[in-house]
Amino acid sequence: MSCRKALEQYIKATNTHVFENVKELLDPDAVYWFSDQTCSGFEEIQRYFENAWKQIENEVYSASNVSWITETDEQAVCLYTYEWEGLYQGESIQGSGRATNVFVKDESGSWKLKHEHLSSLPKL
């Protein structure tokens, strides 16, 4: 599997709203920088994801304008615009922002997400 396919699988797994599907694609030492919190390791990341899925029902997450800024045999970094939509307290809601993802290849040769940084889009 390529790093590009790993990103596709990560987004697909996120949209299942089942953390075990996401966990399969994460490095054990993964670190997330969300706009409101930093999460390290599976337990913290799982709590954050599951809370978000409870807050935004039927959330659909997607990526556009993906740019791979580094690709080697062992690591890859991409930038993209993320979009999400779902229901918050029964009302339709959506948002977007910037993402940076760092993938590393593990001992078995599989690509794993090591770091994700999400932030707001710059104000115009």
Quick overview:
This protein is an alpha+beta fold. It is built from three helices and six strands; from the N terminus they run H-H-E-E-H-E-E-E-E.
Explain this structure.
26% of the residues lie in helices and 52% in strands. By secondary structure, it is of the alpha+beta class. It has one domain: Nuclear Transport Factor 2, Chain: A, CATH 3.10.450. A hairpin with a 3-residue loop joins strand 3 (57-71) and strand 4 (75-88).
List keywords for this structure.
124 residues; alpha+beta; Nuclear Transport Factor 2, Chain: A; six-stranded mixed beta sheet; 6 strands
User: For the residues shown, what is the average pLDDT?
Assistant: 96
Structural class: alpha+beta
CATH architecture: Roll
Radius of gyration: 14 Å
Poorly predicted segments = none
CATH class category name: Alpha Beta
Number of helices: 3
Question: Helix and strand layout, with pairings?
Answer:
Layout: H1 3-14, H2 19-23, E1 26-33, E2 38-40, H3 41-55, E3 57-71, E4 75-88, E5 91-105, E6 111-119
Parallel strand pairs: 1-6
Antiparallel strand pairs: 1-2, 3-4, 4-5, 5-6
